[in-house]
Amino acid sequence: MYALPIFLFAAIAAAMALSILIVAQVVGPKRHSAVKDMPYESGMDPIHSARKRFNISFYLLAIEFLVFDVELLFLYPWAVTAHEAGAFGEGHSVFYAVMGFICVLLVGFAYTWRKGVFQWN
Fold it and tell me: For the CA atoms of the chain, what is the radius of gyration?
């Protein structure tokens, strides 16, 4: 009963996406040049191979950024809900669950701090 509207929406969306791709291939420009075929790298000419090795600190710092970015995605809705429902929401269990979540994130933060991710040489 509820599957038909969802299926129709998905089918129409897929048909529209496919038709846009086909029209773009047919109507779009097809001129190639050496400059257009060159790899683009943040507005600069590439000066070395893309397979160059990076220090693991860059990777760990990126993961740290993602962890705290995801933390904010979880904490904003909780904070709004807690503010609307009172100090702790509907009981203390939600508050303790969020504090447990923050503690897990702090353990990850302490690990990356101990690994020296925030010290640049």
Answer: 24
